[in-house]
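Lecture 7 notes: from sequence to structure.

We start with a single chain of 435 residues. Read the sequence below before looking at the structure.
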Amino acid sequence: MKKSFIALCFLLISFPSFSQFSGGDGTLSNPYKIKYVKDIIELSNNVINGNHYLNVYFIMVDDINFVSTTIDSSQFFSPIGGRGMTNALINRFKGNFNGDGYVVKNLTINTPDDNNTSLFGNIENATIQNIGVDNGYFVGSYNSGGLVGYATNSTIQNSFSKSYVSINNSSTASNCGGLVGFLNNSVINNCYAICNVNVNSNIINGNIGGLVGSACYSSTFIFNSYSAPTGFSAPTNTKAGLFCGNLNTGATISNCFYSTTISGYVGLEINYSATSNLLAKTDAQLKDSSMIATLNSSQTTSPWTKDILSINNGFPVHTWQMNILKVFVQSVGHDSISLNVVYNDTNSVTSRGIVYKQSTLNTWDTINVLDTNFNCTLYNLVPNSDYHIKAFVVVGSDTIYSNIITARTSWQGDGTQNNPFIINNVSDLLAVSNN
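Now the structure, written as tokens:
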């Protein structure tokens, strides 16, 4: 008995069980779930240790708050993709990261002697999308950005940064941008930066930009984006622009804009063998509703919307930033679906409700909800049927809709002799056949 107990202890010690991140398996249909600070740290550590996550998928399922910018997060967190020139090339993140409308808050990385300083330090063949960095603080030596330090052959879309970004390297050319430090054969689409970009006065020949420090080569494109710096300071011997410092060797800027509130700087300092459709705008022009139409023009979706909640002080926001209204299924019956709706805002609501329809129909039905906690149940539904459901609130003259979810009613009956399943239609027969 004693030997068996010792053997069992050895097995437990030698083969510990653990789960990666907060769920998922890294596939497109079931991406790894990023929910806590520990998940971000785990991802960073794994990349540093050689796992590039090529063709692996991640999704955020909640905001991640590093608590306070008074705490230097670099004590326990390194940028995803590593930092420093000696290991930067082998430690690039190569996966697909979907923020899914969530935000990383209060991340501070104050490492003036390290390179590639940002949330994502160094990425290659990666996709970063639907994510925001709010109240970030990034100080590095070379390639600092509010979201990505260095990007090559990658796509960054539907994302933003509202951060303080700086470099502190006095000996060589450096890149610093409100969103991305250096963009190499990569694409930025539908992004913005509202950042304080402040560079050490000793920087030699650096590339400093409100959105991107330096963008180079013919496969580099920046589309449908804007920068509105809250602060901007760069030495006279650098290439400094309120949107981009250096656009080089075939790179393209199209349908992009920058705020002219800060004087003394142009939007684009250097344009060498590149194409630029970059326009200067006052803050009032950037905040005008016509700017939303301009940013959304020639796109099949509408990624930009009006800042009706003043989260950007009136500057355009991503449509996903207005998704402060989310609907969840609590339970289902054969003819009912019980719902809970979360509305994460303090603005006064004049009315609220649920819009729903059977998936096979085109007409939506609406019910108004009086309960301020937003709990309600849909009744008189068809058993064993899919329903599309979304919630709405009316704030002033604006109507805000939630995400659309799909829920399925259950069978009528429980399958016992006394209470058999009820077959009402062909769909029920098909369900029996499939099961």
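The chain has five helices and 36 strands. Keep this in mind for problem set 3.
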